Amino acid sequence: MMAGDGLLVRVRPPLGRLTIAQAAGLAEAARRHGNGLIDLTNRAALQIRGVTEPGHRPLLEQLIALDLTDPDPARETRHNLVLTPDWSTGDDTENIARSLLAALDRLPDLPAKIGIAIDAGPAPGLTHVPADFRIERSATGTLLLRAEGHALGASTSAETAVQDLIALSRWFLATGGALSGRMARHKAPLPLTSGVAPASPRPLQQLLAQAPGPFHGIAFGQLDADSLAALTEQPGVTALRLTPWRGLILEGGLANPGHALSDPLLRVDACPGAPACPQASVATRDLAARLAPLVEGALHLSGCAKGCARPKPADIVLTGQDGRFDLARKACAGSPPETAGLTPDQILALLGKS
Questions:
Q1: Domain(s) of CATH 3.30.413.10: residues in the chain
Q2: Staple partner for 69: which of 63, 129, 157, 310, CB 3.0–4.6 Å?
Q3: CATH code of the domain made up of 2-71+211-251
Q4: How many whole angstroms separate alpha carbon 240 and alpha carbon 150?
């Protein structure tokens, strides 16, 4: 996808995990073929920024050599998975994910934004992470396959979850789901013969406490190639796991060298803004960093009305419009403003008092 600073190239590492060699290789590839900046997405994927047209093919070849992308583009487009990042070797999350990766040729070609959450820990941990089909637990420990937008799921097992998922995805297409684009918008009656509710979601702190290393928070979910390479040299680190929460799990790590989960910067959503995005009329992230300690709750700064960084409402949303910001509360980017045409200094004065 083209952005203001060049092509964005998305990378979905198998099992949401980078070995030390893969992380070092990806950092080198981002320096050589991009502008050295790497984004973490809210689906636990990576984006290499600033890739040039001539550098695109050499970058893909390097990613294929690192086993970070599939040489078959059709298979790669089906690899839209997110795993709960506290999985352990041999557990149901890992086993189902590996089975699904082995069966990608049987998964139909779904709309580009369709995602699959493999969330088979003791209770759901990815409830608020975007996905269309979810494998998760009931309160009694039963595995469920659940379609987004439906409160109940159908019982499944580690052995049958993949075939059940493939069958549900084929039903989605056969009943016109491609026109809806997303499962939550698809109104056809589900072909499920029974309904079981998922367990209550696990608190994020509890989930991260079970991860195989400390959580390394990254402001705005963006780091540079040198910072990524440096993480591989932290004492004890054997791999990096991606999370949907603007951070990485330092597998085997002894300490957290980055932002803690409680850091105000990690609850701020801000797109790259101008000049990185041609749609944006304002710079966003410097102002977001200044506002973070002043605002309670969710804060969203959007360079334009599209609201790419946060599709859902925020307590405070600032939307770029003709070089200034419109402010709204409990709203999405582009919503009718409470106050329009604000400069950064006016926003700081206004929110600093509220």
A1: 264-353
A2: 63
A3: 3.90.480.10
A4: 33
User: Of 113, 20, 5, 14, nearest to 55 (Cα)?
Assistant: 5
Task: Indicate if the alpha-carbon torsion angle 190, 192, 196, 200 is positive or negative.
Answer: negative
- Please count the other Cβ atoms lying within 10 Å of the Cβ belonging to residue 203: 11
- What does pTM read for this prediction? 0.89
pLDDT digits (tens, 9 = 90+) for 296-338: 889 999 999 999 888 889 999 999 999 999 999 999 999 999 9
Helices (H), 142-250: 161-174, 177-180, 204-209, 225-231
Strand 268-270 with 299-302, pairing: parallel
Q: Specify the residue for token string 């997405």.
A: 41
pLDDT digits (tens, 9 = 90+) for 262-287: 888 888 999 989 988 888 999 999 99
Architecture of domain 264-353: 2-Layer Sandwich (3.30)
